Amino acid sequence: LFSNNLATMLSGAQMLSSVLPAEIIYGRIVPGVGLSMLFGTFYYSLHGLITAAKTGQTKLCCLPFGINTPGVFAFNSGVIMAVYYAEGGGAQAAETAWQVGVAANFVQGVV
To answer: Is 23 exposed, middle or buried, given 0-12, 13-18 or 19+ CB atoms closer than 10 A?
Structure first.
């Protein structure tokens, strides 16, 4: 699972390198993905332990937490790149595309 998530993250980052500066990709996006993977993995592991303690069952498996590979490509092209090109390109368009991407990702997580 680790190598799959790493490959997906690096592929998605490379895909965005044509529209976003390295500072946004490697200074904001990649660290954010790393933190979310860390907390998500701990959350699901903890949830599995709590469920095991409540039910007394020892044969449980927690849900694997990872990056949805097709979702990365759809999100990059359908949200971030679309906003970048709709804004006309350039540094301000890159910042706006990143901000819209953050907001869209938040809304997607809430829904």
So the answer is: exposed
Comparing CA positions, the residue from 5, 40, 16 lying closest to residue 98 is 16
pTM, full prediction: 0.79
pLDDT band at 78 (very low <50, low <70, confident <90, very high): very high
Q: Which of 73, 81, 100 is nearest to 8 (CA)?
A: 73
Q: How many CB atoms lie within 10 A of CB 96?
A: 17
Question: 20-68 pLDDT, tens per residue?
Answer: 999 999 999 999 998 988 898 888 888 888 999 999 988 887 777 888 8
Structure tokens at 58: 């020892």
Under 8 Å between Cβ of 17 and 97: no
Q: What is the dihedral of CA 87, 88, 92, 96, to 10 degrees?
A: 20
Task: Report the distance separating Cα 5 and Cα 48, nearest Å.
Answer: 21
